[in-house]
Design brief:
By secondary structure, the chain is α+β, with helices and mostly antiparallel strands. The protein has three helices and five strands; from the N terminus they run βαααββββ. Helices cover 31% and strands 30% of the residues. The radius of gyration is 20 Å and the shape is extended. The relative contact order is 0.25.
Length: 127
C-alpha cells in the first residue's frame, strides 16, 4: 500500500538520510528504528509509515507483521527563494527547500537486513 507526504519543509538531502535507514526493513522494525532516530525527519516519516500500514490494513486487509518497506522515495518539492542582506548593499540568496516523500509497503519477508561480509582478493606480491 502507498502513502504520500507532500511539501514537507526540510531539504530532501536531510530527509534521505532517514529514508535510507528504513528502506527494505520490516514495517514493525522500521517503526522502532524511527522512534529512536535523533533526526527531525524521523517523526514525519514514522507518521507516514503508520499511515501506509493503516492503508494496507483497511484497503487490503493485510497483517502488519507481514509488511515491509518495499520502496521509499524522497523527491524535491517547491523551493522558497529568500534573500539576506549582506555588506555593501548586496544580497545573497537563501533557498528554503521542501520534500515530497512517498512510501510503498509490500507483503512478504522483505530484504535481509544483515550485510554480507566483503571478500576482497588479497594482492599477490611479485618477488
Amino acid at each position: 500500500m502507498k502513502a504520500l507526504l507532500k511539501n514537507y519543509r526540510q531539504a530532501p538531502r536531510k530527509v534521505r538520510l532517514v529514508a535510507d535507514h528504513i528502506r527494505g526493513k520490516r514495517a514493525t522494525e522500521a517503526r522502532v528504528l524511527l522512534s529512536a532516530l535523533p533526526k527531525r525527519a524521523a517523526l514525519p516519516i514514522r507518521k507516514l509509515l503508520d499511515s501506509a500500514i493503516a492503508n494496507a490494513k483497511n484497503m487490503n486487509g493485510a497483517d502488519a507483521g507481514s509488511l515491509y518497506v518495499k520502496e521509499i522515495r524522497v523527491d524535491a518539492g517547491p523551493t522558497l527563494k529568500r534573500f539576506m542582506p549582506r555588506a555593501f548593499g548586496r544580497a545573497s540568496a537563501i533557498n528554503k527547500r521542501s520534500s515530497h516523500v512517498s512510501i510503498v509497503l509490500g507483503e512478504g519477508a522483505g530484504k535481509v537486513t544483515a550485510r554480507p561480509v566483503s571478500r576482497r582478493k588479497k594482492k599477490m606480491s611479485s618477488s
